[in-house]
Amino acid sequence: MRKTKKIMAALLTAAMVIGSLTGCGGGNSATSTNDKGEIAELINAVQPESGEYDPAGAAAYEYFSVQTNCYEGFVNYDKEGKIVPAAADHWDVNDDATEYTFYIRDDEKWSDGSDVTSADFENTMKRALEPDNGSWYVDFLFVVKNAEKCFNGKCDFKDVGIECIDDKTIKFTLEEPCSYFLDLCKLPTYMPSNCKYATDDNKDWDMNPEQNLGNGPYHLSEHVDGDHVSFEKNKYYRDAKSTNVLKITDKFMDDDQAKASAYQTGEINILQGAPSEIAESYEGKDDLSIREVPQTNYILFNINEKPFDDVKVRQAFSLALNRKDIAAVVGTACEPGTSFVGKNYKSKADGKKWGEAQGDLLDEDLAKAKELLAEAGYKDGKDLPTITYTYPAMSYEANVAQVLQAQWKKLGVDVKLEAMEYEVYVDERRNGKLQMARMQWYADYNDPTSWLKMYQTGNAQNDVKWSNAKYDKLIQESDKNLDEASRQKQLMEAEKILVSEDTVICPLFSPSNQDLIDPSLTGYYTDGLAYTFFYKTTKK
Asked: Using an 8 Å Cβ cutoff, are 73 and 192 in contact?
């Protein structure tokens, strides 16, 4: 059965905040070091918990912190976004790029000291291809021979192009050449999960610190629903000598002022993705670090219900928006944008930012928007059904929603705003119950298809079940195109269908992450996807 976890967000009351202020007194023993110079603990404030920690399941938000700290796939990214060896020290690729053989390091160990084997990698893929496990990333396995057929019950797993040649060697046979297959190996469904514990009969292994083993710098050591999750050093990690932070704790916090107070008093050492009003108060100080991130915030239209089953209505709502005003309420580190692929994503073909290479995909034209709405039979908004814009009750979302509401009012449309607790919001959106839903997507791997594959026909992330044959064909053809320049043209053409022609989504802006990090810390680094790794951190 598909595993469903209802995880409550941590709620910090005023009394708790006051208690932390008086208790810490502006210092933080968490950054204390031992006689080896190792840091005892770093505490990070993160969004409320959601999703599972099983790489074969519904991985969202906190899963990626678990992956960053605890799991290691075949490959990693360096600071420039280039592929480098990780759990595999090398790999072979045949001449037509349809066979990849990975050689797992002899010293690759789980946090209990046991060997990481090819069967552990296969274990995640096999479970992801079982539909009842509800994997959000299963579609990215479909480049492997017969994987999609297996998922759809048309063949057995033994027929899938995944072969464990021996304990330390695994071979993939692809349906066709895939120019970004190594990038896909960064996704959850390509991560290892320990065969001893990660089974379909053991549903809660991923939340159990005794069973959720790590093969990265850390392993899961504590999980408290709605409050925090902690990771402790994996002493068997192949590069354990470089792990200078003994423990990392992610504290779930959904109140911006509580986060600010916690950072100011030293209750937390790290506040990643600090809201602009907080980050701007640290401008010019060593605490503030700004990272351009490959992310897009956008609106998803429910194309299956009136009035958004009419493309003219979708286009009218998109053209009526002034994205500069929308971005302004988020903060100075936010840029308006009309591309779906992250505006700051750097092209593999020429190194340019995607937003510059693609250009504007939507005109902002209120007069044209009114004209389109009238053509759809809703002149000046008359006869429109009740329209609701739904967003998760967190961070700056309410401010964005109010600006959207005011701008659509100029179109002649009264839009109701609805904030939802995040877990409920996700369920409602994925079940197709929301008219207009706030969405954001952060690249999972270093390729434009990290965004664009979401809306292929049948993709698990395609919440509105949109289908366009031309779009699908362009994505499919780009997959096997090994020439990056011509491949980019195919992907840009596909993006225009999604955004400009069918207007299934309405891009709004691309933010940069504004992080607050204790200035006494150094040695952490950020990879090419803007994920920050703290295990090598030292104290000045």
From this structure: yes
Q: Quick one: 185 and 98 in the same domain?
A: yes
The rounded distance, in Å, linking the Cα atoms of 496 and 323 is 18
| Domain ranges, residue 88 | 14-233
Tell me phi and psi for residue 177, to 5 degrees: -55, 140
Q: Domain with 110 in it: what CATH number?
A: 3.90.76.10
Alpha helices in 152-201 (DSSP H): 181-184
Cβ(296)–Cβ(443) below 8 Å: no
Position 422 scores a pLDDT of 84
At CA 389, angle to CA 385 and CA 390, rounded to 5?
130
In this prediction, what percent of the chain has a pLDDT beyond 90?
79
Decide: 308 and 299 in contact? Cβ < 8 Å: no
Which pLDDT value is given to residue 24?
33
Encoded tokens for 151: 């998922």
- Of 233, 254, 276, the one marking the end of a domain is 233
Local confidence band at 6 (pLDDT 50, 70, 90 cut-offs): very low
**Number of helices followed by number of strands (H, E) in the chain:** 16, 22
Provide the β-strand partners of residue 530: none
Distance CA 115, CA 50 (A): 30
- Classify residue 538: in a domain, yes or no: no
Total domains in the fold of the chain: 2
> In terms of domains, do 117 and 210 share one?
yes
Calculate the alpha carbon distances from 201 to 3, 138, 207 in Å. Answer: 11, 20, 14
Cα R_g (the chain), whole angstroms: 23
- Name 88's bridge partners: 104
